[in-house]
Give the backbone structure.
Amino acid sequence: MTSSAEDGRAQLTGTRTLERPAVAGSGIAGLRPAGPRWLWSWLLGRLQSRAVVVPVALWAVAHALIFGWALCVRAVVLVASGHAAALSPVTLFFRWDSLYFASIAEHGYVGPDSGPTWAAFFPGFPASARVALAMVGVPHPDPVQIVIALEAVAAVASLVAALLVWRLAQHRYGDRVAVAATLLFVLGPYALFLVAPYSEALFVAFALGAWLCAERGRWLSAGLLAAGASFTRIDGLFLIAGLAVLVAVRLRARGEPYLVKALGTATIGGAGIAVYWAALWAWTGNPAAWFAAQHLGWHRALNWPWVSLGNTVASIFVPPAQHQLQNAADLVFAALIVTGLVVLIRRRQWGAATYVGLTAVAMMTSTTYLSIARASAILFPLTILAATTVTDPRRRWIFATVLGAGLVLLAVNTALFVNGVWVD
């Protein structure tokens, strides 16, 4: 048998023929690829890694189920109404906020074709679509190409996020929790927003990458990825605060100086939102242009928590029915998020508690709890927290309940969404 030292030298010099032992079901035993053998060896090893195969498989199955279900329910409605020819897989999830992102990608924020409420949507997602189109040689896309690009960015980002959820959960708790966390992530009650051309997938990919880097002591990388998150969604502010706390707590526990690195991570992470808000100020002359757009389009304003709660409860009794359903879901999810926050605090997970807590405070002091249920798709610390219950026989019912109820709500939300009904 070749020694490990000889193996290392052989990989560096590229003098050995690549010979991997047969792996059941792999279909690559005895493969002799052209090119640098060490690179092929590394790539093939990665592709066979459990940390890649399992989350990719779960992501693919989840996407297929969501897309297949959406296509079926949309087809039934269109056929029943005599408009079967209108069925289009490309625009199946092109609803609500997706129209804003596509318009921003096509026209930008300023100009005769731009809308006064577009500033409420951060530029990271539409900008990524335009970059992707430019990379494939389409610098001046038509509207359909923009929609396809947005969907492609969301798909790739959600795949990256699934891989990172696995790695983050596995790094802390092992393979069993990693599988459970990835399942809850890709099949969560609002996972349709990881399939639709919405900004959640890109944001959570940046956020998970930043979090994993911070846990591994890569503070600069964490800050740079957090900047991508804060360029994509306002939730990046809460993520940055959580990362700063995570960095400070970890360094302090090791007896190392922590203030400079924690503040440095937060400063770098805040670059994304700072650039966007500075640009809005320059374009509009209003330093609070983002807040003004939020108020103009969705009547969002800062309120006392009890006022926000009262408004949300009252909205449950105001038609139409689909709004009543989503407002009720927002109340339920608010309670679940607060419960999860308490558990995070009891477990002294201060960074995660900061991220989740600030997100909850921001959404529970707005006019109503609008979209707090949808926020569950990006609050990955709670996803991993729920997944940890699989390791305790006495609490596995929690995981089963969360997964089962989530699947039911996912099916309902998807059916409503693709048929043009507002979903949170």
Observations:
- DSSP finds 18 helices and no strands in the chain.
- Confidence is low (pLDDT under 50) at residues 1-34.
- The CA atoms of residues 308 and 367 lie 5 Å apart.
